[in-house]
Specification:
mainly alpha, two-stranded antiparallel ribbon
């Protein structure tokens, strides 16, 4: 228990997590959307764009020690509660169940509650973190 508490002392709050998501959108999402438009001629989401986005958010943290491109730039990463790297099962729980399913079923209210949780909880964990047994930690002190 003490080990978990010391690991969570570097838990990351809302703004750094938001910044990482924004950077992911700009660095990965915008070029992906442009590429998709050049290939398909469609401006709306399509199978190619959706598949690449899903694989990016699901697999990159598994293979890159909890990082996405945006998270790496701001110096944060996803880890399990014991500080160990996330696996595919953990990321499936975090993203598919924690984000997509819960946030869709609650019509986005779960996402708002998660943002508030990250802002006010001492451990900075959102709904998807609680479901998957993860938290977002910093490579450097805030």
């Amino acid at each position: 228990m003490e080990n978990e508490k010391s690991l969570q002392s570097h838990a990351v709050g809302f703004w750094r997590r938001f910044g990482a998501s924004l950077l992911d959108g700009l660095i990965i999402g915008v070029p992906l959307a442009l590429l998709s438009y050049m290939i398909t001629g469609e401006t709306k989401g399509n199978l190619f764009t959706n598949l690449v986005s899903i694989l990016y958010s699901l697999l990159l943290p598994v293979f890159w020690y909890g990082y996405t491109v945006g998270k790496r730039i701001v110096g944060i990463r996803i880890v399990k509660m014991d500080g160990s790297p996330v696996g595919i099962g953990t990321m499936l729980l975090r993203i598919v169940v924690g984000c997509w399913l819960i946030y869709t079923v609650t019509l986005g209210i779960g996402a708002i509650i998660s943002a508030i949780m990250v802002g006010v909880r001492e451990d900075k964990r959102a709904i998807h973190d609680l479901i998957a047994g993860t938290y977002v930690t910093s490579d450097r002190p805030e």
